[in-house]
Amino acid sequence: MLADEFGREVTGVRVSLTDRCNFDCIYCHNEGLGDTRGPMAPSDDEMGTDDVVRFLEVAAEFDVDAVKFTGGEPMLREDLEEIVARAPDSMEVSVTTNGTFLPDRAEALVDAGLERVNVSQDALDPEAFAAVTKSGAYDRVIEGVEAALDAGLDPVKLNMVVFEHTAGYVPEMVDHVAENEGLQLQLIEYMPELTGKPEWNVEIERVHDWLAERADRIEHREMHDRRRYHVGEGMVEIVDPVENPTFCANCHRVRVTHQGYLKGCLNRNDDLRSMGEMTRPEIREAFREVVANRVPYYGEYLVRDGDGDGEWELNEKYVEEYAGV
Fold first, then answer.
1. Looking at domain 12-294, what is its CATH homologous superfamily?
2. SS3 call for 236
3. Residue 280's closest CA among 288, 269, 271?
4. What is the pTM of this model?
């Protein structure tokens, strides 16, 4: 298993299969790449089926034991079932999706080997949902969640980005998972540095405080310093990486863009590493290099100025030494 110089072993990979999406969510940062989404037709620069599988096989050589397929919308890939089926047996396979294609494909994906699914759902009201996603597919998403549960993908984890436009919907979403067995809720802290809309930010600690009063039981996960709130039948977890050195210090994931670039950190694009023609030797070399050069985003790439109580600022020493800037 490969580890970076901070001792963080890479145990998982997050593979973007496409930047295409049938939604246009107003908070989307496209895996940290920005709004690069193009036409809905497949593009020539997307990794092919064999390329994706070959990468996963090499990652498995380094004891990576989990892969999450993302996008864009990964289910726009017609070969998703094949990719899932051909993923190494040693890897847990999951998908993050907007859910609109699950009614027709959940069962086939489970048959192929899919083990977990995250469905993006930012509201329970169709009009509110449409305002955030720029999509009228609310009913289809609800059907998709039910299809995933029927196919045995429980618990289905609902992803909700918490920012100005959605914060008011948090209580009903929490009630929703509390009342429906098989659902969990993941509240994801809004990342203004990736979306360019800092005015949409909300204080995530207020959500923590509200949930602490509402929860029947609170569980603390040392990894990423996360808290899980058990409410009724459901569980709510807050993903709060912004200005969280503990979160970054416990990151064990490498990302892959749809174009076949390795990405050591969600927040950065100055560390992209091409895997060339996607031959096994090229993939191995690129993977080793990206892992070796990973640094915690908060705490190393960004550091506190002055005596440590100031604002986060770019670590010029790191940039000069490693990034060649």
1. Aldolase class I (3.20.20.70)
2. strand
3. 288
4. 0.93
